[in-house]
Structures are given as C-alpha cells and as structure tokens.
Amino acid sequence: MYVIESKGGAIACMLLALLFLGTWPALMTLTERRGRLPQHTYLDYTLANLLAAVIIALTLGEIGPSRPNFITQLSQENWQSMMFAMAGGIALSLGTLATQYAWAFVGLSVTEVITASITVVIGTTLNYFLDDKINRAEIIFPGIACFLIAVCFGSAVHKSNASDNKSKLQDFKSLETTSSLQTETNPETNGLAKGEAKKGTAAFLIELEKQRAIKVFGKSTIIGLMLTFFAGICISLISPAVSLATNDQWHTLKNGVPKLNVYTAYFYFSVSAFVIALILNIRFLYWPILGLPRSSFKAYLNDWNGRGLSFLAGFLCGFGDGLQFMGGQAAGYAAAGAVQALPLVSTFWGILLFGEYRRSSRKTYILLICMLFMFIVAVAVLTASSGHRK
C-alpha cells in the first residue's frame, strides 16, 4: 500500500480534501433547488461515494512496498477495528442525510459553518487525546477557539440574513399590491412574471420556492437548526472512529494481528455508510418527510435529471474523505480537523451559484467577512499543529 510519510504530503492531502469536501454540498444543493427529490440525489451520491472508496482501496491500497495491503487485510481477524470503521460510516450517513435537508431551511453556508464547528470542537478534541497528543496543544486548542468564534459569527450572519429576506418579502408584497392598482408594472414584479428575477431579490426568493423540491416558506428555521446540530454531532464522531480503527488505541486486536491500514478502514467505513443510506432513502421514497412528494424505486431509476451532478458530488465527497484520512494518519487526526473549514469553499459556491447574501444589508456583509476571516485563521492554526505519527 502507498503510505504518506512526510508532513508536507499530509498537509497537501488535507488542503485538497478541503476543496473537495467544500464543493460536493454545493452540487447537491443545486440539484434540490432545480426540483430533484433529495432521496433520488442521495441514492446516487452514496453509490458514487462507495465507488470512490473501492477505487482508492484497489489502487493506493495495493501499490507500494508497505504491508499488509488492502486485499490481504480483508481475510484477517480484525473485526474489532472493522466495527469502529463501520460505526464511523453510520455516523457519516446519518450526518450527511441530516445536512441535506438542513441546507434547504438555513442555507448552505450557515449549515456548513455550524456542522463544521461542532465537528472541530468535539472531533478534534477527541482525536487529540486518542492520538496520544502528537499534535501541539498550545496551537491546536487556540485553533478550536477560532472555530467557536466563527460559529458565533455564522449564527449572527444567519439571523441577519433571515431578517433581510423577511424585509424583502414584506416590501415585495407592498410593491405587488401597488402594481395591481396601477397601469405601470414594477420591474421586480415583472421579473417574477417572466421568470427573470435577479438573485437576492424577493422575486428571486419566491421563484426559487416554486421550483425547489423542499418547500420552506412558512416553516420554522428551528427545524433546519435542529437538523444541523444533529448532523454536527454525528459528523464529529467520524474521524475518531476511523482513528480507532486504524491505530487501535484501545488495544482490541489480538496479539500479532496487524492494525487496519487507512484504505481498508475507509472501505469498511464506506460500505456501512452505503447500506444505511440505502435503507433510509428507500424508506423515504415511499414514506417521505418534510412534506416531500411520494416516489418509488422505479421513479428513482428513471430520474436522470441532475444524476450527473449527484454522482460528481458523491465522488468528490468520497475522495475528499479518503484524502482527509490519509493526511490524518500521517500528521494526526486532530490536525486533519483543518478540513472542517470547508465553509470557506461552500460559502464561495453559495454566493456564486445560489446568490446567497446578494442584496443583503451592510451588517450581514460585515458579519460574513468576519466569519470567513476566522475560518482562514482556524485553518492556518490547525494546519500548523500537525505532528508526525511514528
């Protein structure tokens, strides 16, 4: 198997993982905003995610002089470590499924900010102690503090932006009433009628609501925030579970049985995530939640609208997770928490693709800049805490 031995290689893996893990949520959000049912999207995503793990295992897990390789470990008596890896996969499946619905209620940027920050606070702290403190405490805990500050700014951004949107919709209703009483039409109401509303306007928000799969108007954002916090707790357990699977800190393996390599652990991790996602999403096809229309497995197979984006999202997440674990195995899983600064990338896509924060107030923009700045600082600090596993 191929083993990353240098700190520089580990950091490169983590930065590339940051790009991949920050991009795939934007692709899945895009399919939902175009009207594709989230159950259909998630089934495609989870299949591609599993394929990515198989590709990584059969390539990087088989090349190089280091042993034991992926195929060899499949027949070894390492079921204890396998269970830790599979527990991490279950946490991944539940966490990403919750975030998929949370994106619709509180937006891509805020969802990623809160889940990433919870993951760093819980997951990085657990990893620091599991990894026998190979990461520098005087650096890593200030980095966690930066994430906490960032999530405070993120919550403030959400509250401010929600207030801006509410004001836009109220003003739009007044304009619509006025336009109906006059011969001249207002440009904003006319844009809605033609389906050409500009991003950030009230007309755009109404147009978006009409075409998206998950309807959010009239529903409390508390639902989205509850899903977000649940997702954050689940995702925070992923990295510690993989760390236990690959390093056996609790000494569960029998004497003489080699520890799982990161590729075998990631394979078991992805298999369990796939199975749980398959069970839950097929159930949601026939008994949907949050007011979504009922579907069927046949309808899913025939739904090719957005399938390419869904598969791409799954591959990006799969390779991103694999790179994160490879970097964490080399430099410490606590330092690998730097990839949880993925809101930097997600916010970029949210603004570019979805028009998030367009035409918002000055207060919202200031809070947004502060939030992004704190994430940049957090990434730099956590990366600097990288150690070297012997």
From TrEMBL:
- Per the record's keyword annotation, is Membrane included, yes or no? yes
One GO CC annotation: membrane
Print the keywords alphabetically.
Answer: ATP-binding, Membrane, Nucleotide-binding, Transmembrane, Transmembrane helix, Transport
* Cell location: Membrane
* Pfam families found in the cross-reference section: Ureide_permease (PF07168)
Q: How does it sit in the membrane?
A: Multi-pass membrane protein
Gene Ontology molecular-function annotations: allantoin:proton symporter activity; ATP binding; uracil:monoatomic cation symporter activity
Q: InterPro entries, from UniProt? A: UPS_plant, Ureide_permease
Segments spanning the bilayer are 6-30, 42-61, 81-98, 105-127, 139-158, 222-245, 265-287, 308-327, 333-353, 365-384
* Signal peptide stretch: none
Q: Which family does it belong to?
A: Belongs to the plant ureide permease (TC 2.A.7.19) family.
Q: What is this protein called?
A: Ureide permease 1-like
* Species, as recorded: Capsella rubella
